[in-house]
Amino acid sequence: MSERVLISFLGKGRQQDFNGTRSGYEQVKYEFPAQDDGPGAQHTTTLFGWALWQRLAATGRRPHRWLILGTPESIWTALGDVFGDAEQGVACLEALKSNGNGVTSDQLAAAAALIQPLLCEGRPKHETCVDLRLTTACRTKAQQQELFALLDSALHEHDNVTLDITHGFRHLPVLLSFMLNLLAFTKDVRVKGMFYGAREMTENGHTPVVDLAACVDYSALTAGAATLANTGNYRRLAEHYPNEIRKKLEQMAFLESSNRVARGRQVARECRNFLDRYAEDDVPATINKKIRDALAWSDGDNYAARVVERGKFCLDHRDYAKAAALLFEGIILHAARRAGIQLTDTYDETRRLEAEKWLEGMNFRELRVLRHVRNALAHGTEPTDAAAQSVLATEDHLHRFLQRISDLADQVAQP
Q1: pLDDT, tens digit (0-9, with 9 covering 90-100), for 92-145
Q2: Distances in Å between the alpha carbon of 56 and those of 25, 53, 64, 195?
Q3: Which of 2, 41, 189, 345 is most buried, taking the most CB atoms under 10 A from its CB?
Q4: Would you say 132 and 108 are in contact if contact means Cβ atoms under 8 Å apart?
Q5: CA-CA-CA-CA torsion for 37, 38, 41, 47, nearest 10 degrees?
Q6: pLDDT digits over 380-398, tens only?
Q7: Interatomic CA distance for residues 236 and 249, integer angstroms
Q8: Following DSSP, what letter does each residue of 290-351 receive, concatenated?
């Protein structure tokens, strides 16, 4: 089950008037911008993460967990602001007093137990609503890897993360952003929000909160673009388009994944026509172009050409089973067209055999090897044919063989 997780950092703060004994965060009036679903809001606090937690709760996005990261020297006493002047706040401050060497994990556990009832109001008592974790300053690669291990252990499958990058060392949110990109693939963790309380932009006592929504969008688009580049599948990018085109792209992705090229031509054209007209900022033009390029096979002059172009696309993305099947089919279709044999997307064994005989007369012997290779890839079995065994001995052999088959398909297409 997915949960909403707010992640914050704690730093050392600035020297404040605490009898010269410690540092702390200043009292700040944070101004949250208006959103589509409601007006803006103000929250006055020393700890931006607490203001953000309240803002999320007020807009129907109350975090299930609050993960707070800091070094032993961070100003953990800032957590006392969660309670104001209440008795629990005094107890929290007492629990977090440093002995000069920084706070310990045991102290953080005691403070978390005090904060827990406030944040878990209305939820089962056994649930963890606040998670206080010690980390290093992450100066070295080894320390940075330790931070990833911590993050990996703290986040669960399908968690939705809101990132608070206001306090703490500037480089830590940068590290975390890249780590969350990895967890998007390994755990389906999604970054749903990123916010910065811009203290240096304060005017007339009001500090703006910067909603870094574009960072969230670009992170998700990057994941989708990487999937497209590596696999040829644009389904994840479809999520960023209006509902009408999203459904068309998802339908098209299904038709391609099931090798239903004939049925997909019209849908592909509809998708490309929409992408030609789409000019919203939510999806950059470079993404539109990549999806259009992936659908370029639908421009083929005839059914055989479209099947071959789709096969070449699959070969480019090392989807060998589909590439072999489509290239084999494309060659048969081209041969039928040249021999005057009427073949459609409906399977006709008799006419297909006629087309294959025409190819044998043209001395295209590699088609026999391709048949064995295609069957082996489709059924997951080892071929009995020696030539096919050689082709499947290594990926390089297979790739070069299918590239020759691709060239053969172009040759067969020529009158």
Answers
A1: 777 777 666 788 888 888 888 888 877 776 666 556 688 999 999 999 999 999
A2: 21, 5, 11, 11
A3: 189
A4: yes
A5: -20
A6: 999 999 999 999 999 999 9
A7: 10
A8: HHHHHTGGGG-SSHHHHHHHHHHHHHHTT-HHHHHHHHHHHHHHHHHHHHT----SS--HHH
Q: Residue 355 in contact with residue 342, Cβ under 8 Å?
A: no
Tell me if 323 sits within 8 A of 315, measured CB to CB: yes
Sign of the C-alpha dihedral computed for residues 283, 288, 294 and 300 taken in this order: positive
Q: Is 284 helix (H, G, I), strand (E, B) or coil?
A: coil
Cα–Cα distance, 155 to 135 (Å, whole number) = 15
What is the model's pTM?
0.82
Structure tokens at 72: 């032993």
Two tokens, residue 94: 């007492």
Dihedral sign (CA 202, 207, 213, 216) = positive
81: DSSP letter: G
In angstroms, the Cα distances linking 88 to 84, 110, 395 are 9, 12, 64
